What does this fold into?
Amino acid sequence: MYCPQCRAEYREGFSECSDCHVPLLSGAPPPDPFDPNMELVIVLETNDQVQLAMVKGLLEDAGIPFYLLGRITTLIQDVDPMLHKWIQVQVPRDREAEARELIESLTAAEPSPEVDES
It folds into this structure.
């Protein structure tokens, strides 16, 4: 048994991932698709958890593999919200243009704050 999201393995008798709260799948998790020879590029650096979640959703929907650096530091941020840790979103170089286009469409859709020029 394993979680399809975090890939954690469970003994028989469990039906839901304790971290992700999704139903477990039977069998062993598939091999990790990460290729250590893959050239990764940073397409976003953020400390905004909402923006990160939206970008992850866009990349997942487009089938673009991504990797997060600095994610473990969010545990510290959860303890002390005054610490604004930055997270880097990385994608394979051959998918960089597509990922940047998706991220730009997200930021273009966000309303810009009104500036009072009086």
About this structure: The CA atoms of residues 7 and 29 lie 6 Å apart. The radius of gyration is 18 Å. The first strand starts at residue 40 and ends at 46. The helical segments are 49-62, 74-79, 96-109.
